[in-house]
Design a protein that fits this description.
- By secondary structure, this protein is α/β, with parallel strands linked by helices.
- The protein has four helices and ten strands, in the order ββαβαββαβαββββ.
- The strands form two sheets. It has an eight-stranded mixed beta sheet, with helices on both faces. The protein has a two-stranded antiparallel ribbon with strand order 2-8.
- α2 links the parallel β3 and β4.
- The chain starts with 7 loop residues before the first strand and ends with a strand.
- Key enzyme in folate metabolism. Catalyzes an essential reaction for de novo glycine and purine synthesis, and for DNA precursor synthesis.
- Pathway: Cofactor biosynthesis; tetrahydrofolate biosynthesis; 5,6,7,8-tetrahydrofolate from 7,8-dihydrofolate: step 1/1.
- This is Dihydrofolate reductase.
- Keywords: NADP, One-carbon metabolism, Oxidoreductase.
Length: about 170
């Protein structure tokens, strides 16, 4: 797999303390301020995700460009949507982009984790039930560049931290 040197791959996800990212193809929480953060960070950027993540009822789509990884693309694509059969093809389709956000699901995160330069990873401060999990990663490979804590309030049942991790350069 060849990645153009100007392309930066960023994982963006929210997970519970027990690494849950989904339940029945939806998020197991509702955090409006986290969604606002997501929109601000990803505005005008290209997204890469698996088909189930794209079709999730609470999925966010790029108004600019979405590349969906699936073995069974529909006959007619929606506006701003392209399909790729695997990650290599998705990266090739996005080769002219400088910033690409990887939105999941679990298997896409697993495959893209070694290639990502940054992770915008929100940690939900709770143990929740789910059926999709963010992959384990070595924290020694990452530098926590920033963290913003958000407490519970009337609109947020869980407290959470919006973290930015930057991959450490090899020494």
């Amino acid at each position: 797999m060849i990645i153009n040197m100007k392309m930066q791959l960023y994982i963006i996800a929210a997970m519970s303390e027990n690494h849950v990212i989904g339940l029945n193809n939806s998020l197991p929480w509702h955090l409006p301020d986290e969604w606002t953060h997501f929109r601000k960070v990803t505005a005008g950027k290209a997204f890469m995700m698996g088909r189930k993540s794209f079709e999730a009822p609470d999925a966010l789509h790029s108004e600019y460009r979405n590349v969906i990884i699936t073995a069974h693309p529909p006959a007619q694509a929606e506006p701003h949507v392209e399909y790729a059969k695997d990650i290599s093809e998705a990266i090739a389709l996005l080769s002219d982009e400088t910033d690409v956000f990887i939105l999941g699901g679990a298997s896409i995160f697993q495959q893209m984790l070694p290639l990502a330069q940054r992770m915008y990873l929100t940690i939900i401060h709770a143990q929740v039930e789910g059926d999709a999990y963010f992959p384990a990663f070595d924290p020694n490979d990452w530098h926590l560049a920033s963290s913003e804590f958000h407490d519970t309030d009337d609109a947020h049942a869980y407290s959470f931290s919006m973290n930015l991790y930057v991959r450490k350069q090899p020494e």
